[in-house]
Design brief:
54% of the residues lie in helices and 19% in strands. It is of the alpha+beta class and 611 residues long. It has 3 domains: 142 residues, Galactose-binding domain-like (Jelly Rolls), CATH 2.60.120.260; 217 residues, Rhopdopsin 7-helix transmembrane proteins; 132 residues, Histidine kinase-like ATPase, C-terminal domain (Heat Shock Protein 90). It catalyses: ATP + protein L-histidine = ADP + protein N-phospho-L-histidine.
Length: 611
């Protein structure tokens, strides 16, 4: 008990440290190569250029809205509910006429950029009238010339769609063509990740063709395809490079929907790996919740689905951190059936995605839109999980081949053992019977003593032959059920080795078809044999439970040496058991309950007719 408590304390310590690091890094801004210029009372002095550096225009801008007095407004900021207004900033420049570029991800839903009362450029269609305004999220770069002295920069914004209204994100100016180069680099990175994610999805679909766990690969591939689309919309630049005339509302709805579906598909791909039926149920509820939110997002107004989408960030964060908690708690036992690299990469992937969710959620709350981390963290998440799934597939394929070879060797060994048993046992007794019978025939008289010997020898031969048949085929349909065979195995274990062996069978019907019954029996037999070969148990517990939807089984023993590191590479017994269960479409797992107790578990879905 103290060892279990110590393990839980260790898990809690690691989890608390991870949670602290993720939270602090989410609050911290991303380092930028830009120099922040802070406006005071709507005035900024632009410094002399000292290389390729861009400037972010922050601080107090002047804001004039219809029917209101001009006032100072912090940038970045959320200024009003809906409507239009004009941001103004005076730029003081001491150099000669110099070409600059203006860039922002999205300064609202539509705007016009003016410098010294001359129109420089626009995004969407600006109008203070709702019916004439056309929003856009397309990032644009506008060129202008700063003249010596005072330059008045104005941005006229109209918004009648976005719930956060006059949304003014981070604004940059840079000497030409620095902003253009930065834009092109970001577009190249986004499109590179887009192409990579599609390749990852194709890889997963390819693995699904050959894998016994097809559903995991298929759901993960679908999630990857959707996150690829979501990422290029999340960063805006890449999607408008591909589709320059994309409608704003369609773009925003599609962005939200792709992330809903991707989240649901990623969770569903691994939901069967959770340690309890309760958590598996919660994962399924989360999946259907994502599907429901997708349907809702197709019909409800955008101002309704936007806050729902923001609320999804902390929900996904909590789910990911819970998965980290589960994986930390089962880390040691997971090494029984997977590599250390896969276990660690899976934890890192979930931590990175949780960080992306928390960072962007904090950014939305603080109106901090300089860098959005979800596209990059989802890319890393998919990349790491692709490595994990590929490694698991290769390992499972290797274990399957080893299991097949071991089964072939075992079958050959059983044939040789059968031949030896028949030759040295039953055949010798039959030869003795033949000798004694021939002697009686030649003596021409009945010898009761010899007849008694013949009778006893015949009984011994029959008994020995029955033992041989039981070892070769313990379940004979019409005379022996799986239930009775398991109880017989438990009795033999207790009688032969003096180890307390418990056998519990529950269910309305325990009579299955030949393939299912034989494989289940050999799984129990292999697990018991492993307990005798590799451990020193004081008890072995075998459980078989049959429900309407599944066949559940477990074999537990307490003889594992706490100092021994048991891994997937130890012997072929685990590979053979896994192979048999997956052959039946089931899930196999090995769990280390504590330092001395090991549990082999499996779950097989019920077919319409198993008996």
């Amino acid at each position: 008990m103290s060892e279990v408590k110590g393990s839980m304390v260790g898990t809690a310590g690691w989890f608390a440290l991870i949670l602290l690091v993720v939270s602090l890094t989410a609050l911290a801004p991303i380092p930028s190569n830009s120099q922040a210029l802070t406006a005071e009372h709507g005035i900024i002095t632009v410094p002399q250029l000292d290389g390729n550096r861009r400037f972010s225009l922050e601080g107090d801008w002047l804001l004039k809205q219809p029917g209101e007095e001009e006032h100072l407004q912090k940038v970045p900021s959320v200024a009003w509910k809906q409507g239009s207004g004009t941001y103004s900033l005076t730029l003081l420049w001491e150099g000669g006429p110099t070409q600059f570029e203006f860039f922002t991800n999205n300064v609202g839903t539509s705007y016009e950029l003016w410098l010294n009362e001359s129109l420089v450029g626009s995004s969407g269609r600006y109008s203070p009238v709702a019916e004439q305004s056309r929003p856009s999220a397309k990032p644009l770069i506008h060129e202008f010339v700063l003249l010596p002295g005072s330059n008045v920069l104005q941005v006229k914004i109209s918004n009648f769609v976005h719930p956060r209204a006059g949304l003014w994100e981070k604004v940059y100016i840079a000497p030409k063509p620095l902003a253009t180069y930065s834009y092109q680099r970001r577009a190249a990175v986004d499109l590179f990740m887009f192409g990579q994610l599609f390749l990852f999805a194709l890889l997963q679909l390819s693995l699904a063709i050959f894998s016994t766990k097809k559903s995991s690969h298929v759901w993960f591939a679908l999630g990857t395809l959707l996150v690829a689309l979501g990422n290029i919309m999340r960063n805006n630049i890449a999607i408008y490079t591909l589709l320059p005339n994309l409608d704003y509302l369609l773009f925003k709805r599609a962005q939200i929907i792709t992330y809903y579906l991707a989240s649901g598909f990623f969770i569903y791909a691994f939901h069967k790996r959770f340690p309890s039926s309760t958590v598996i149920l919660l994962a399924r509820i989360f999946f259907w919740g994502c599907i429901t939110m997708t349907v809702v997002s197709l019909f409800l107004p955008y101002e309704v689905i936007y806050p729902l989408a923001i609320g999804f960030f902390p929900i996904m964060f909590l789910f990911l951190m819970y998965r980290v908690w589960v994986q930390l708690g089962t880390y040691r036992s997971s090494l029984l059936h997977r590599s250390k690299v896969s276990a660690i990469l899976q934890i890192i992937a979930d931590i990175l995605l949780a960080y992306g969710m928390s960072h962007d959620f904090v950014g939305i709350l603080l109106a901090r839109y300089d860098v959005q981390m979800i596209p990059y963290m989802t890319y890393l998440y998919v990349a790491l999980y692709t490595v994990v799934l590929a490694r698991d597939y290769i390992l499972a394929d290797k274990q399957t081949e080893e299991a097949k070879n071991e089964i072939i060797k075992t079958a050959a060994h059983q044939k040789q053992q059968l031949a030896n048993d028949l030759h040295d046992g039953v055949a010798q007794m039959l030869h003795a019977l033949d000798f004694m019978t021939e002697g009686l025939l030649q003596s021409n008289h009945i010898d009761m003593k010899i007849l008694q010997t013949i009778r006893n020898t015949s009984k011994d031969a029959t008994k020995q032959l029955k033992h041989v048949i039981d070892d070769l085929n313990p379940i004979r349909f019409g005379s022996t059920s799986l239930e009775s065979a398991l109880h017989t195995m438990a009795d033999r274990m207790q009688t032969s080795y003096g180890i307390e062996t418990l056998c519990s069978t529950k269910g309305e019907s325990l009579n299955f078809d030949v393939l299912l019954t034989q494989n289940l029996y050999y799984v129990y037999s292999e697990a018991v044999k492993n307990a005798l070969s590799h451990a020193k148990p004081t008890y072995v517990s075998m459980v078989l439970k049959v429900t309407d939807v599944a066949i559940l089984g477990s074999i537990e023993n307490d003889g594992v040496d706490g100092a021994t590191s048991i891994t997937i590479n130890q012997g072929h017994g685990v590979s053979i058991m896994r192979y048999r269960i997956e052959l039946l479409g089931g899930i196999f797992d090995v769990i280390r309950k504590n330092s001395h107790t090991l549990i082999v578990k499996f779950q097989i879905p019920r077919r319409k007719r198993d008996d």
